[in-house]
Design goal:
Layout: H1 5-36, H2 39-63, H3 71-86, H4 89-144, H5 150-162
Helix pairs in contact: 1-2, 1-3, 1-4
Length: 167
């Protein structure tokens, strides 16, 4: 079995291009992390990137390399990704950051009414809790204690005659 140099060179070139593409994807995810500042989002994006990179390497080896993972695939991916991150990343990263910041501003603009309604509902809920406690006290005084029928009427009559609360 002979070594086909042109085929291996083509695979190496495709691996370099795939590495550069993965570098571009990494830049997009890095810009999203920097624009949002969420730690959990950074974790999820990193996890998704490495799972996707592993899956991409597996598919590349399966489809292009006849199912054999060879060391030069990893070298090609590393050269492509590293080359992209050292050269083109300096040009694309500010564009991606600006894009995500603009998307963040648009998101805040469109969700402002929803967030304002949520704050109003929270304040209403807090005040409602206080009022509910007052209504509960009113209910206990007026309904439970006065539901004894005649006893409630007698108390009301006694209060009216004496000018005060009967003891």
């Amino acid at each position: 079995m002979g070594v086909d140099i042109p085929t291996q060179a083509a695979l190496f070139g495709q691996g370099v291009l795939l590495g550069a593409l993965l570098g571009l994807v990494y830049d997009v995810m890095r810009a999203a992390r920097r624009a949002t500042g969420c730690r959990w989002l950074a974790f999820l994006l990193d996890l998704a990137f490495w799972i996707g990179t592993t899956w991409t390497l597996f598919l590349f080896a399966l489809v292009r390399g006849d199912g054999r993972i060879q060391v030069f695939y990893l070298v090609a991916l590393a050269l492509g990704g590293g080359g992209y991150l050292l050269t083109l990343s300096r040009l694309t990263m500010p564009v991606f950051l600006g894009m995500f910041r603009l998307l963040g501003r648009l998101w805040r603009l469109f969700t402002t009414p929803i967030r304002a309604a949520g704050r109003g509902a929270k304040k209403f809920s807090e005040k409602r809790k206080k009022h509910f406690q007052n209504w509960l006290a009113w209910y206990k005084i007026n309904v439970l204690y006065n539901s004894a029928g005649d006893r409630g009427k007698e108390r009301a009559d006694h209060e009216g005659k004496t000018g005060g609360i009967g003891h």
